[in-house]
Write a structure and sequence with these properties.
2 copies of one chain form a homodimer.
Chain A: E1 5-11, E2 24-30, E3 38-47, H1 51-56, E4 76-83, E5 93-96, E6 103-107, E7 114-116, H2 133-146, E8 153-157, H3 162-173, E9 177-182, H4 185-193, E10 199-202, H5 209-219, E11 224-229, H6 234-241, E12 243-251, H7 269-273, E13 277-280, H8 290-302, E14 310-313, H9 319-327, E15 334-338
Parallel strand pairs in A: 8-9, 8-11, 9-10, 11-12, 12-13, 14-15
Antiparallel strand pairs in A: 1-2, 3-4, 3-6, 3-15, 4-5, 5-7
Helix pairs in contact in A: 2-3, 2-8, 5-6
Chain lengths: ~350, ~350
């Protein structure tokens, strides 16, 4: 076979605070020979996601840290280019966790590592976004924690991101008012005009919690019943000031604190005063919900009801820079790396 | 009838920060004549509870503020001394919300205002504590939010208080490890020796979160699965540092912040990292659970399985001082005012 060398990116060192490109190293390694039961996948796209920041550090988190010198973890979509498994044929489109590299050798017998997908109605890259982990994350937090009733108001931060965009659109579908928080007028305009949110607040236009909270009040005249949290910090404080009785917060991410900056919650007594429920979750721990979520998301993308946007880095060497940009909100929609 | 004058305590002014005795005023007023359907209750005991502090202020909370010049709100137990209702007879023991006064005229037809209680096996005062609102509060937060599994560890703050003491004993009954946090060696000793908690940490012996967190680690070798929050501030931060994956916090009170001192939660990202659920509640909004809770609590007190302690102020004039002491943790167990 012709697929003999593999470019990959490994974690070279752990960041002290803000990560830099020097924390990564590009390597060229041989593609190992396939063993019985294995398939070789050539990656078309690599997914970049905020959770990867957590894996770079050694501090306590829900997942083990990424080992130094090993290929960075990450979701991938691609095509089977060689197979010694009866379950996969050359040419199959697959989604997996191949990591930051061009090729992955996968043990096809191990359940859940590799999944065949149909690209007739859904583009391959969408399986890393709206019809993949980000989409299911949005679906789970919205339907299982926030569980909006018709007419309620749902706010989501990082609203133009892969998760946030899906949260608002799924909330609208359920009859709720969807309000985004995003960074910049361009993103906010797109969230309202293209994704159909009812309103979007540009947090960069507000210097403090008081000002942001006032903007949220105007965007949410009936208060806030559900909040899907991706960022933490000032946005969380401002949302809590507008939270209604019995409101729910789904804690999905707190990107503003990923570099170790303290992000205290100013007034936890509001949880009591408003009888709120605040719940953290990791979508990989709720596999039983994935089939229902993927069915709804796949259908919605196929029919054009669920919209999304992608920011695509051109090759593997561009992945570190793209990832650092994602942590700063430089991406617009789902951040991908194109590998082929 | 001979019950013609009534002493009562009204809210004279709102506290700027820490309340003082000057915020209250003792008045003597005539007892009004009974109308058809009304009963006159002579109070034996008045209950003092932390939630009353919230009612003294005008700031937004779950309940309307206590109006100035009107009788302070509060739970009471007493005896019917005159009746124009077919539902109550003179001599009936009753529990109600009679407020800070010697007598209350109650519209007996209005459901839920007055409840007849049996003092054969349960002392009358216990209906303001272990078999009353504080007991049901403990029961609801423990069973409906924390829902401990056998072998899990449940921590409760203000552990020697009316609510906290019940939380730990109910947790033990369900096979959990019960660990208290209380102020002072005397209270801690009593919580362990008399109430049967597995351990109790004296927060006054710790100057900072780090030290308190270390003490909690020793008291909770398997981490913390459930936390019943009555105080907020440093104790909450320390508990969260020891929280296990999928742990639950029932937010019942945050007395450390009642005077307007900021009590930020230092690391809300732990809610995400540990996939915690943090939920506020007010027991009066869950009346459907009261019968089951009161049945268990009444049975447990009658058989001696559920223990409690009372601090009793001698007369109505002593109520303000006793209430201010309660807010500072000067009480030991349920704080009552004896009126007869």
């Amino acid at each position: 076979m012709s697929h003999t060398t593999n470019q990959r990116i490994v974690l070279a060192s752990r960041p002290a605070a803000e990560p830099t490109v020097d924390n990564f190293r590009l390597e060229t390694v041989p593609v190992p020979e396939l063993q019985d039961g294995q398939v070789l996948v050539r990656h078309h796209y690599l997914s970049l996601d905020p959770y990867m920041r957590g894996r770079m550090s050694e501090s306590k988190s829900y997942a083990n840290p990424q080992p130094l010198g090993e290929t960075m973890i990450g979701g991938t979509v691609g095509e089977v280019v060689a197979t010694r498994s009866p379950h996969f044929a050359v040419g199959d489109h697959v989604v997996g966790m191949g990591g930051w590299q061009q090729y992955a050798v996968v043990d096809a017998a191990q359940r859940g590592l590799l999944r065949k997908v149909d690209t007739t109605h859904v583009p391959l890259s969408a399986y890393l976004g709206a019809v993949g982990m980000p989409g299911v994350t949005a679906w789970y937090g919205l339907t299982q924690i926030i569980a909006p009733k018709e007419g309620e108001t749902v706010v989501v931060s990082a609203a133009s991101g892969a998760v946030g965009g899906a949260v608002g659109q799924l909330a609208k579908k359920r009859g709720a008012r969807a309000v985004g928080v995003a960074g910049g007028a361009d993103k906010c305009r797109w969230v309202v005009d293209e994704l159909g949110f009812d309103a979007c607040v540009d947090y960069k236009a507000h210097a403090d919690v008081r000002s942001l909270s006032q903007a949220l009040k105007e965007a949410c005249p009936n208060g806030i019943d559900g909040y899907f949290e991706n960022v933490g910090g000032m946005v969380l404080d401002a949302v809590m000031q507008r939270a209604n009785a019995f409101s729910r917060i789904a804690m999905c991410g707190m990107i503003s604190g990923y570099n170790g900056v303290p992000i205290p919650m100013s007034a936890p007594q509001l949880i009591l005063i408003n009888r709120m429920k605040v719940q953290g979750f990791i979508v990989g721990e709720h596999m039983e919900h994935w089939p229902a979520a993927l069915a709804e998301l796949g259908q919605a993308v196929a029919t054009g009801a669920l919209k999304y946007r992608e920011t695509v880095a051109p090759d593997l060497a561009a992945a570190p820079e793209a990832f650092l940009g994602l942590l700063k909100g430089k991406n617009f929609g789902k951040q991908l790396v194109k590998l082929i």
